[in-house]
């Protein structure tokens, strides 16, 4: 069933949750189209994982600078990117400058969290809307009748109408319906109403000085919807009249036409619950997730800055009263709760950002390695390693990007008594330069290079068979070069699948010095899994023991949307993790034009994907995407069948969960196709750049200009 024609254009009230890369792109797109936008950011800074309060020293882009820019930045790297692999501080400066330039910064309300989102359903008796929360989480109102998206705010801060919180404005006479009722009828046929036409949001603003008291966990999130910081807020914040900020956290409600969840996938750490953890802790051991490691670093650096000359406590050894430190994981403890985790001490000066994401080629760290680091960064990394691991026997579990980063940092510092990297399976880690000569930006940074991977859409005959015959030997040559260059056989690190078969979310760039540390004996690498913990040791599944005082878990993050009613979340994510979202953006089983998710579709080029996806959301919200729910389902089923047929089980599961690493360019092109964009206006020289130059993100500005303002 096709979506009906778009309703007459009106100004939408848009809430963006998270001011990371995806949130900035979404706010820019909707603000540029004349809509009313507020971006709610839980931290005191924009930038998500790149925010200064979210990182440890040494973190920088793991991919060349050309691969991490928005299209309208232009053909040259931004001035903030004055080196090939910019530090996280420089990436943050770029994002801040970009948000300032395009008017996003004034739209951001910092230190504000989404607590609950209730769908508003259109009624046929005059345009009133109903906020329903069937099977809602405890504490969520079952059913509330509200007027059709009045401009009001009940408490704290500034609302979408610009009024100070604590005031309530009556709905304007003759207010327009929240959304086109026909859209709802076309997209969904179940529930008390066809599809949501808007959302009632419960928001909580926590003044920075109170975030420490409210935070129940340590660590930070990934995308901006969670996380926190204790720096002074900027942008629209609490009205300082009335009760004042010392009254504590405040909650209020907003009603919006469009809710864009851009809080990312890295808010909720996923630490396993090991047997024997209490015995390990009782013997003086410590267990940290890498998300908590960031907090431990910030604590150590803050202590070093404020207590110069004094002996500093071991990171994580003291903190939360009555526990094993704020970063310790007790037996059976769950990961930090709802998408909101806050730091407990002041933000440090800008240096660099959070651990690399498990599924992209952007964020990464050279922490502790000799190559590519400035002296101040290197010193800070060594100081942190000494505080965290000095004289201790360290085991790092997990070999995605963050696991490789931490293991390399600790091994290079020489601070620990021993560093062992425990890997469940071998994974591909791409070198910065193949054979030490060809930068990865000319291979995996180009359309031509990525086309060596398995295509989502079959190429026409005879191009398809010819290209297949050519790509196979080229890939095998690339793999052979990596084995030789990194010494994978000697390190026992040869992956079980070819690169194009095992192309899962863990694909990342090798931290400089990682394999050198393995071959030099400074880093012990073991294959296996943790079976249990005991006093002073990690027991592996095969019964062997690794002596350890510190266990660092690079075990990834779980996705969650605790602010959504469980019945709606179940229409987005299946029990096995498969997404029912078109392009991993639009929850077609919920329907309507009011709910979108950005940041669950990580690929090779974060800024470009964020920009194209944000424009797709704008086109969909304004009613110009002409794809039916049946077509969306069919697209996903074909995508998932392709994944199951051509990739390893892990890589196929990643594709089902929205990861686009294996088909990044098809993902981008399919979104552009939905919008009616065309590459026809590109000159022959621009087409050559499009395929052979690193990303060539600037050309997509010209491509987006071809999107028709009206479509039949």
TrEMBL record:
Task: Show the InterPro entries listed in the entry.
Answer: FAD/NAD-bd_sf (IPR036188), Flavin_mOase-like (IPR020946), FMO-like (IPR050346)
Record's keyword annotation contains Membrane:
no
The Swiss-Prot or TrEMBL record lists the needed cofactor(s) as: FAD
Against SUPFAM superfamilies, the record matches this protein to: FAD/NAD(P)-binding domain
Domain of life of the native organism:
Eukaryota
Question: In the record, what terms sit under GO molecular function?
Answer: flavin adenine dinucleotide binding; N,N-dimethylaniline monooxygenase activity; NADP binding
Q: What is this protein called?
A: Flavin-containing monooxygenase
């Amino acid at each position: 069933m096709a979506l009906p024609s778009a309703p007459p254009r009106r100004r939408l009230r848009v809430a963006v949750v998270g001011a990371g890369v995806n949130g900035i792109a979404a706010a820019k797109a909707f603000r540029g189209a004349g809509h009313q936008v507020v971006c709610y950011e839980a931290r005191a800074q924009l930038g998500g994982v790149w925010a200064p309060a979210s990182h440890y020293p040494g973190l920088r882009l793991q991919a060349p600078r050309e691969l991490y820019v928005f299209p309208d930045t232009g053909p040259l790297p931004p001035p903030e990117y004055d080196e090939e692999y910019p530090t996280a501080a420089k990436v943050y400066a770029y994002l801040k400058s970009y948000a300032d330039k395009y008017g996003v910064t004034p739209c951001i309300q910092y230190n504000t969290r989404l607590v609950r989102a209730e769908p508003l359903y259109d009624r046929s008796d005059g345009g009133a809307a109903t906020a329903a929360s069937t099977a809602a989480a405890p504490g969520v109102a079952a059913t509330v009748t509200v007027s059709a998206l009045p401009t009001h705010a009940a408490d704290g801060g500034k609302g979408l109408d610009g009024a100070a919180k604590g005031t309530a404005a009556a709905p304007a006479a003759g207010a327009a319906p929240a959304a086109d009722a026909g859209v709802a009828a076309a997209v969904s046929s179940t529930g008390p109403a066809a599809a949501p036409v808007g959302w009632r949001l419960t928001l909580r603003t926590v003044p920075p000085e109170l975030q420490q008291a409210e935070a129940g966990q340590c660590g930070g999130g990934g995308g901006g919807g969670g996380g926190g910081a204790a720096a002074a807020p900027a942008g629209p914040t609490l009205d300082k009249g009335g009760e004042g900020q010392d009254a504590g956290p405040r909650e209020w409600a907003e009603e919006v036409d469009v809710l864009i969840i851009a809080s990312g996938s890295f808010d909720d750490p996923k630490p396993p619950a090991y047997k024997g953890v209490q015995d390990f802790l009782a013997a003086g051991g410590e267990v940290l997730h890498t998300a908590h490691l960031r907090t431990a670093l910030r604590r150590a650096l803050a202590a070093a800055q404020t207590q110069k000359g004094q002996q500093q406590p071991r990171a994580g050894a003291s903190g939360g009263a009555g526990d094993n430190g704020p970063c310790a994981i007790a037996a059976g403890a769950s990961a930090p709760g709802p998408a909101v985790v806050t730091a407990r001490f002041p933000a440090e000066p800008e240096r660099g950002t959070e651990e690399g994401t498990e599924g992209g080629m952007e964020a990464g760290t050279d922490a502790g390695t000799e190559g590519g680091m400035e002296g101040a960064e290197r010193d800070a990394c060594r100081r942190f390693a000494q505080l965290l691991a000095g004289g201790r026997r360290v085991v790092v579990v997990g070999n995605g990007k963050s696991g490789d980063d931490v293991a390399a940092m600790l091994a290079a510092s020489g601070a620990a008594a021993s560093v062992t990297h425990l890997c469940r399976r071998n994974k591909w880690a791409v070198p910065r330069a193949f054979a030490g000569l060809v930068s990865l930006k000319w291979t995996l940074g180009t359309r031509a290079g990525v086309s060596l991977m398995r295509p989502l859409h079959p190429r026409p005959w005879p191009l398809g068979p010819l290209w297949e015959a050519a790509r196979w030997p080229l890939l095998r040559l690339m793999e052979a070069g990596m084995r030789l260059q990194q010494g994978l056989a000697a390190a026992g690190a040869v992956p079980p699948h070819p690169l194009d078969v095992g192309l899962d979310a863990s694909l990342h760039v090798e931290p400089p010095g990682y394999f050198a540390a393995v071959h030099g004996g400074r880093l012990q690498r073991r294959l296996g899994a943790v079976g249990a913990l005991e006093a002073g040791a990690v027991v592996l599944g095969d019964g062997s023991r690794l002596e350890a005082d510190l266990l660092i878990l690079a075990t990834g993050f779980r996705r969650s949307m605790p602010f959504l009613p469980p019945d709606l979340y179940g229409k987005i994510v299946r029990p096995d993790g498969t997404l029912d979202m078109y392009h991993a953006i639009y929850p077609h089983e919920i329907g309507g034009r009011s709910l979108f998710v950005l940041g669950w579709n990580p690929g090779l080029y974060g800024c470009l994907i964020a920009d194209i996806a944000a424009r797709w959301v704008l086109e969909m919200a304004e009613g110009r995407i002409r794809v039916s729910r049946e077509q969306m389902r069919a697209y996903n089923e074909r995508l998932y069948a392709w994944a199951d047929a051509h990739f390893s089980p892990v890589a196929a599961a990643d594709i089902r969960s929205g990861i686009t690493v294996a088909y990044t360019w098809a993902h981008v092109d399919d979104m552009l196709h939905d919008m009616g964009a065309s590459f026809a206006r590109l000159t022959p020289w621009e087409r050559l750049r499009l395929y052979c130059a690193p990303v060539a993100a600037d050309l997509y500005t010209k491509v987006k200009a071809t999107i028709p303002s009206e479509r039949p």
